[in-house]
Structure formats: structure tokens, C-alpha cells
Amino acid sequence: MQEEAMTPRLDRTGPFVEGDKVQVSDSKGRMNTITLKADTLFHSHRGFIRHDDLIGRPDGTVITNSAGQQLQAFRPLYNDYMMAMPRGAAIIYPKDSAQILMYGDVFPGARVIEAGVGSAGLSIALLRAIGPTGSLRSIERRSDFAEVARENVRAFFGEEPAWWDLSVGDFQDGAVALAEQGERADRVVLDMLAPWECVDQAADVLEDGGVFLAYIATVTQMSRTVEALRDHGEFTEPDAWETMMRPWHLDGLAVRPVHRMNSHTGFLLTARRTARGSLALRRKQRPAPGSRDEAELNHPDNDGFGGSDSEWSAQDLGERGIAEKKSRRALRDIRQGRTR
């Protein structure tokens, strides 16, 4: 008898089952993440617990270890999983993923193309948001990053979602091929060094009214991408912002901001594609003095602001290269069920 095909568990609810990732924490907030496996023990510096004592128990259960210490067990939330999962490339932080889903209006059933997959932090959020009725095409230039991304997605969902297509290559080539086949996307999400180089191809593949969204590291990259969108003519006036998240310390009367926070991680830039052949309206506003001065725009010190034609490398932007050794270590940790 043929076994029934598994479907990824999007709900992540119900009693713990073998293969689940579970966060076990004590009363001091010390936390460990384990992958449940029958007939297995988890040892800490204060006793051990049996995985079998958790399998079949409800999410959020409290158990006692061999040393009499009480521990509580929960499935990791998306935020927990993202911050702890092994990675080769840096991830898009959950605070930015949330902005992408909301301001990009990523809906169930959406057709999404993303480029610059990295370790798949955003891919997982997109796959959950669009669900089985949607489709996500992820394009990554580095094969080692793609392999880490695939393993992280499988570890999160339990298997690879059927509505996900991951390929190695350039966004420009992939978008052109899709456009030639008559396929369209509702949303295009870019996380890459030079998103301005992809504006034309994004316009070709985007549905009329679709959303272009870029996650950008530096101000100069943002300025150059904005000018490329304006020059194209069929994108609305871009919006850009950054999100800073400040947690608070809560202890009786001692309620105050914590001393450390996730401040700037990147900029988000969005624009909508107009109907084909319809030029976007330009926002009428008085320009700031000197903002459009040709001599200033063309000065070498302002390269990138207001658009430019020079070629940039990762080193020009201060980005550090990521060795394949780091990707291999991330793959090993994922397959062994380890976290960061």
C-alpha cells in the first residue's frame, strides 16, 4: 500500500509529534531547542528529560526533569525560529519580514517572485502567507546559499512545500523567461546588491497593479533604485522607510526600555506597476535647493545619489564575502537539528 503524501503543517498546532522542533526553557528564561525523537534524552547542566515525555503532550506543557527542575515546552514561533536557525547568508529580520508581508500586501494565493534567497528567512514567511493556492519562485545566485535555504525550509515545514520553486541563477534571466512564457507575478521582492539593474525585468513580469519591493542595505543603493524606478516611467512614486524595534523590560515598577535593541537593519522600498503603456503620475512638489543641480549630481563624491552609471561591487558597499565553509557548517547544523 502506497504511503499518503505528507503536506507541510502550516498550522503548527496540536500535540507534539516526533520530528517537531521544541523550545524547552526554565524559570530563568534559559532556553534550548531540541528536535523530538523517540527513545532519546536531552541533557543539560541540570538533569535530563526524555523526548518520549514530550511526544504526544500538548504545546505549552510543563514537565519535570531528572533533577526535579520544572521546564516548559513550546513550538518555536516564526520569530524564534528565524533568530535561531543556522544560516550561511544573513537573514531578513522578522521585523522587516512583517513589513514586507503587510506593505507588500502579500495575500493567500499570490504569485510571488523573490531574488536573493540567502538562508530563506523571508522565503518561509512568504510561503506561509501565500499558502498552497499561491506560488513562490525563489532565485538565488549562489548554489551553496540555495542549498542552505532548501534545508531550512524543509526543517521548518517538515518537507518542501509544493508551491515553492527554488532555482540558481540571475533574476534578470528568470524574469525574462517567465515573461516570454506569458507568466506574471503579483509581487516581486528583491534582496540583492544592485536592485536597480532589475527594474526593467521586474516591470516585464509584474502584473498591472503589482508591487515591486526591495530590501536595501545602504542609502546610496536606495537612491539609485528610486531613480531607476522613476526613469522607467511605469512605476508609481516610490515609498521608502526603515523600522526600529525597541523592546521593554517589565519587572514590577521597573518598566523601562531595554538597553539594547534591533535598530537599523535595512531599508524597504516599494512602488506599484501601472497599467502597461500608462505613465505614472509624478508627485508635484517643490524640490529641495540643490537636490537636482547637475554639477552636484555628477560630482564623484555623490556617486549613487540621484542615479549614476558606475558599476558597484560588494566591496564598494562594505559588504563582506561569505565563505562556502560557513554554508557547509550551516547545512551540518540544520541536518543535525542544531540551532545558533
TrEMBL record:
Record InterPro entries: SAM-dependent_MTases_sf, TRM61_C, tRNA_MeTrfase_Gcd14
Entry EC number(s): 2.1.1.219, 2.1.1.220
Comp. bias regions, Basic and acidic residues: 291-302, 317-340
Organism taxonomic ancestry: Bacteria, Bacillati, Actinomycetota, Actinomycetes, Micrococcales
Disordered: region residues: 278-340
Single GO MF descriptor: tRNA (adenine(57)-N1)/(adenine(58)-N1)-methyltransferase activity
EC primary class: transferase
Protein name: tRNA (Adenine57-N1/adenine58-N1)-methyltransferase
One GO biological process term: tRNA methylation
CDD domains: AdoMet_MTases
tRNA (adenine(58)-N(1))-methyltransferase catalytic subunit TRM61 C-terminal domain segment(s): 83-249
Keywords annotated in UniProt: Methyltransferase, S-adenosyl-L-methionine, Transferase, tRNA processing
Pfam families xref list: GCD14, TrmI-like_N
Native source organism of the sequence: Helcobacillus massiliensis
PROSITE patterns xrefs: SAM_TRM61
